[in-house]
Amino acid sequence: MERAAALNESGAAAPWLPGRGDNASLELASRPPAPPIINPWDVMLCVSGTAIACENAIVVAIICYSPSLRTPMFMLIGSLATADLLAGLGLILNFVFQYVIRSETVSLITVGFLVASFTASVSSLLAITVDRYLSLYNALTYYSERTVLCIHTMLVGTWGVSLCLGLLPVLGWNCLHDYAACSIVRPLTKSNVTLLSASFFLIFIIMLHLYIEICKIVCRHAHQIALQQHFLTASHYVATKKGVSTLAIILGTFGASWLPFAIYCVVGDPDYPSVYTYATLLPATYNSMINPIIYAYRNQEIQRSMWVLFCGCFQSKVSFRSRSPSDV
What we know:
The protein has 328 residues and is an all-alpha fold. It is built from ten helices and no strands.
């Protein structure tokens, strides 16, 4: 914003410098504008977007390539990878359009694309959490048509809401002609980012509650096994501890990535230095970089599909155990 203001001031003053004639003014006005100075933070966001796009493109390709990965769990992982892939592409396009094609319309479309992509990513994480909870709470009826219908409903809701939120800036909820209404993320308005932040806080609270319930179920199952065997074996203790630790890592990573930016969206002011916005936004993008590692690459069925996809000569000498959503 500061750079844009400086460019506007220089562009307005240059053709009418005092002490020069009209010819000199026309000559200055006809010169090509100086190329914008590239912000290092924008470069880091572009690099982050490139890494995000590459990681998640592999996951999307694996799920589309492998007919065996058609279960509800992998549909949700595919939704998450698709959303993160689009978010990565959006960060790349934002950099290109910011420094190559400078247009208000393009800016609105890019921002709307990023809002929709990151909203779909966060919503897909919530859907995966709900799926994991259902796989434990309704373990006997999980593999049924009712579960497939539930997954399809969550996917439609996730992408429908994300698309609507992404279209809001494009359809007029922006601050291009009212700087006083701008938020820390121009051209989004303060009310727009407040809505997005409130939605994130709600999703985070729901995920926290569900993961606490999952921990209770896991510990209760371990206790029942201990009662049946009259003691808790070391393997069951290790598995329970590992499961709870994994849940803590998943939720901790999600919160550490997005909470600073969501909080700053509420308390921040557009007149604050832009470095504060970049410093909170950049870690939020890292969540999309970590998601495929947590939810995809650790899955043994996806690992096996990667061998088939990239090697083409997979020998079934390595044992892969089929995993369910409850294998956290």
